[in-house]
Amino acid sequence: MAKTVFKNILQILIILIFNNFLAQKTPEKLPKNAVNDTISKKDTIVVKKEPLNDVLRTKADDQRRDVPKKMTFLNKNAQVKYQDMQIDADYISIDDNKNLIYARGKQDSLGKIVEPVITTQAGKKYETNEFSYNTKTKQAIAFNARTEESEGVIIAQKTKKYNDSVFAMRKADYTTDDYFIKKKDTAADYFMRAYNIKLIKTKTKSQIVTGPIQMFIEQVPTPLYLPFAILPFSDKRAAGILIPSFGEREDVGFFLNGIGYYQPIGEHFDLKVLADIYTKGSWNLRPQVNYQKKYRYSGNFTADIGTMVRGIKGLDDYTKNSTYRINWTHSQDSKANPFLTFSASVDIVSTKFYNNPLNNNYIFNQNVLNTQQNSTVTLTKRFLKLPMTITGTASYSQNFATGLADLRLPQMNVAINQFYLFKSRTGIRQGLLENITVNTGFNLTNFVNTQENELFKKEMWDKMQTGLKNNIALATNTTVAKYFTFSLSANIDNALTTKTLNRYYDPVKNVTVDEINKNFTGYSTFSTSASLQTTLFGMMKFKKGSTVEAVRHMMTPSLSFTYSPDFSSPNFGYYRNYYNATGALTPYSIFEKGIIGSPSSGMQGALGFNIGNNIEMKVKSKSDSTGVKKIKIFESLNLAGSYNFAAKDHPWSVFSINGQSSFFNNKLTVNTSLALEPYKIEFLPGQDTGIRTEQFGHFSVQGFNVQLSYPLSSEIFGQKTDYAKKYSSKGEIRNENYYFDDDHYAHFDQAWTLNISANYAYSKGLSRLGNKIASLGLDGSIKLTPYWNINGSTHYDMVTKELAYTRIGFSRDQRSFTINFNWVPFGQYKVYDFFIGIKANILSDALKYKDRSFTQPNAPF
After folding, report:
1. Tell me, what's the pLDDT at 186?
2. How do residues 387-406 score in pLDDT, each as one tens digit?
3. CB 132 within 8 A of CB 102
4. The LPS-assembly protein LptD central domain covers which part of the protein (predicted)?
């Protein structure tokens, strides 16, 4: 027996060794022509690829395998794991023939899904009622799928997954309602419904592209329909369609306002192109470019180019005007270069631009009331070692009333930093000499006032004026007799210009002719002033136990004297005379109408005074920890005037009194001003303009103004109620607490504000009848509930007995969006504005609904 076993083992070893030698033998190479001797490829054995690329792991409370049909059935707490995907469901079936996995959620007795299928893939969770997945093609179909993306969630009736990047959905709802996403509510407060949606996902971002889409609020469809929508889910900027507002204006018809496209350009730029379209033929194009480089600069470029069409073509009221507006702003970061800065604010518009507003925002912002537009470009150079600053400026100003434009190009200013003329001996500056400061600089200006159609043409260059001006200001001060501050100052102006005026009367044409001479000339002027100022204190104390303990009065009187010679004297040569139409000898300055201005005429030797007052009192107060509190009667009360010793007539100036005070814990603010004419004004019969006489002492009111402002709020009239201690029953909606009394009425803080303002102004001057302006304004808001708010403002003209600008607004704070309604019921433009804005950052600028309507002043509202 043992020999037989040994013999068999030996035979097996011999066979294995022989086969091993055969396997290691290198086959001989076949000749190229021996093709027919080789084995055909059709005769080779091809191993069939397995349908699964990974192990399919399953588990369930009840598992059943149908071997003939190659089916697996999982019931109750079923789970399938395949590659990076996990499926959890109440029921799962696996078909090996079709490479198909089917899952269904838990059903109740009526067949309704009560627990969804949960599919997790690549860290993303999806909830569906039914789900099927092809392991070979990796495509899937889901019914009633719930997909969360960024700040929102999509619920689609049917979803087909083509691959890991593309999902197609049918009849899908998208919402950003946080309560619905967190399943605190079974219904979203709003959603956007589209019948065809494509979800495109990449490694860095994802986005939704839809067909026609409609907005629903509280399950109710709204009139907001969009032909399509693109919603990017990414923190980075993404291109997309900009949703317009729509409404009606009687003069231009129905409109779409602000429809456009947004396109980011690189890291530092983006482009926005908007259009305004009106049914009566008007249109407007608004390109906008924004740019920013961190720690360097930022700016934007905007333009409005359009055509305003009013009326019906062929009728008398038909008008067609082209309008334009070009705006550029640029600012430089202070950290970029402290020694060289550049800024620009350029705003150039056509003359009738604001009379033909195609962008409705100009009406809401009241830009239509603009009468002037200014543009400035500034370059500033500072030096590390030189005590000076050089500023170059180009400016352009338009006056829409006159149609004229002012152009200053270029304008350069060189400012020398302030310095002390004499060095201090002890290190501490004392006396008049050591405190002398010098301020000086140069200003070069090229200026022209011309029509817009003459810009940069020969007519403009002929009118161009060039002027150079230098100012030297010296000032010093010192203390006199410990309690008085004595100040001295002097100003010297030196001016040069390239054009002067020659004026004469032409008796043939019966006109006064101003002839401009092109010659180089200039003038020098100077003036000096001295002032003396001190501070006085006074205190009046009352008996102990009285309500008012003391009254404190602080007075700051000052006297000043100003002197300047009469530069209209023939000795200077700055003024000349001509005979006017009546034959009277009339003086004029040869620098009149020039860029550098004219020297002053008449000697000035005026003594001025100013008396400042501050009055406070101390009263008893139980609310103050010290037992007393200060009340300001007058924060400031100033009286000012002057007497000109060199004047031939009317040496006294108009006296002015200005006061400011506040009451009721600084809530009520009062500002007043009063102008008193010291000379008697006489009126000739039939004339409304008076003449100042030399009779001093007839003080008459020439002007008076008072402004009051008082803000009220719920906090002023009491502290907030502690509802948690007062009421036992409590409810909560959206993290806001309601407290209920025994009768089940809800209580909460109803915050409100109300600002009351009043203004009265009276001006008379030399007229017989003065002009009065009086108005009362109200501006406030009240919270009806924690989510409803009413706000508004109105002004009542007490002279015309009419309401002026009035606005009423309502706002509703929903969970995921806000509703605002603003209404201006009367005025030049009657406007209502309805706005719905999504709170989610991803949709705050992409989805909005606005409806505006404008009517003309005389049209019914």
Report:
1. 81
2. 999 999 999 888 877 778 88
3. yes
4. 208-679
Helix (H) or strand (E) holding 23, with range, is helix 2-24
Measuring CA to CA, which residue among 273, 241, 274, 234 is closest to residue 257? 274
**Cα distance between residue 624 and residue 13, in whole Å:** 113
Binning pLDDT at 50, 70 and 90, where does residue 575 land? very high
Just give the CATH number of 57-235. Answer: 2.60.450.10
CB atoms closer than 10 angstroms to residue 496: 15
**pLDDT at residue 739 tops 50:** yes
236 secondary structure, DSSP code? S
- Return all residues near 34 (Cβ < 8 A) that are at least 6 apart: none
Residue-wise pLDDT for 104-115, tens only, equals 999 988 888 889
CA distance linking residue 586 with residue 580, whole number of Å: 7
Distance (Å, rounded) from C-alpha 307 to C-alpha 692? 54
- What's the pTM value of the predicted model, to 2 decimals? 0.62
Q: Which two tokens stand for residue 339?
A: 């020694």
Q: What is the model's pLDDT at position 830?
A: 66
SS3 for 66-118, per residue? ECCCCEEEEEEEEEEEECCEEEEEEEEEEECCCCEEEEECEECCCCCEEECEE
Rounded to whole angstroms, the Cα distance separating 263 from 616 reads 62
The per-residue pLDDT for 711 is 86
Domain coordinates in residue numbering, the chain? 57-235, 715-749
What percentage of the chain has pLDDT greater than the value 90? 26
| Structure token digits, residue 366 | 């009241």
Please report where in the chains the tokens 């350009």 appear, as a residue: 265
384-395: b (≥16 Cβ within 10 Å) or e: eeeeebbbbbbb
Place of tokens 């338009």: 398
Helices (H), 721-831: 723-726
Question: Which structure tokens are listed for 199?
Answer: 């979800």
**CA–CA gap between residue 661 and residue 599 (Å, rounded):** 40
